[in-house]
Design goal:
With 104 residues, the chain is mainly alpha-helical. It contains 2 helices and no strands. The longest helix has 50 residues, at 50-99. The two termini are 33 Å apart.
């Protein structure tokens, strides 16, 4: 958000909203992850046999993918931070150009 001395020509409202909602995304992921682990643990304790073994093998693959989603979420959040930083720097530079145009 700009103060009285800033020139803003790039709207970063959506990026900033995503940053504010980041912890909520992380909390939802964590809740899904915990629930998934609980379900698989409960199933493995109560379901036996060849079908159970095959299911649990697939569940391990899914668990690895869920972990991959956490890594992607962290990467996306970090990328948003980097993008916002570059946008703000560009916005400030554009403001400088507009406040102090070069006279030829």
């Amino acid at each position: 958000m700009a103060d009285n001395n800033e020139y803003v020509c790039i709207d970063t409202k959506v990026i900033r909203e995503c940053q504010q909602r980041r912890q909520g995304f992380i909390n939802k992921y964590d809740a899904i992850s915990v629930r998934y682990d609980w379900i698989i643990r409960d199933l493995s304790e109560n379901w036996k046999g060849e079908s159970a073994d095959l299911f649990l093998k697939d569940a391990e693959v899914i668990r690895k993918n869920i972990t991959g989603i956490a890594d992607m979420l962290a990467y996306l959040c970090n990328t948003l931070d980097d993008v916002l930083k570059v946008i703000c720097q560009t916005d400030a530079a554009l403001g400088d150009v507009n406040r102090n145009p070069t006279q030829e």
